[in-house]
Structure formats: C-alpha cells, structure tokens
Design goal:
By secondary structure, this protein is mostly helical. It contains two helices and no strands.
C-alpha cells in the first residue's frame, strides 16, 4: 500500500503547495508588516491565526497523500 503520491518529491513545484504555504505564513507576514510600521492595526485574533495555519497544514498534507481515483461513469 502506497500512501504518498508517486511524484511526492516534486510536489513543491505545484502552485497549490506554494499558495498553501503562503496562507500558512500569512500571520507571520502580517506581523512583519506591522513591525515595519507599514500597518497601524496589529489586531489579528489569535484564533484566526491558528485556524489559518491549521488549514494550510491540512492542505499541504492533503496534497502529499495519495488519493483514490474517482470511479469512471458508465458509458
């Protein structure tokens, strides 16, 4: 039983992985922008930060796990 996709070492080339990593890094990017003084409102709810990071991790893991192909419709 193979758990990972066949080309899992090349998944980093997929745009979806980069987008999910950017989503996961969004709270840190926001904190950096606030610390540089480019944004005056530093209030981001901590719950939102953890939900965003959790979704990003779930998306990346879902990208690497091999999924069963959908059954083809009868012709």
């Amino acid at each position: 039983m193979q758990i990972l996709v066949d080309e899992w070492r090349h998944c980093w080339k997929a745009i979806s992985v980069w987008v999910l990593l950017l989503i996961g890094a969004a709270p840190d990017i926001h904190a950096a922008v606030v610390s540089m003084g480019w944004l005056n409102d530093p209030n981001v709810p901590p719950t939102f930060v953890w939900i965003l990071r959790g979704l990003a991790v779930a998306g990346v893991v879902g990208r690497y796990v091999k999924q069963r192909p959908s059954p083809k419709a009868p012709e």
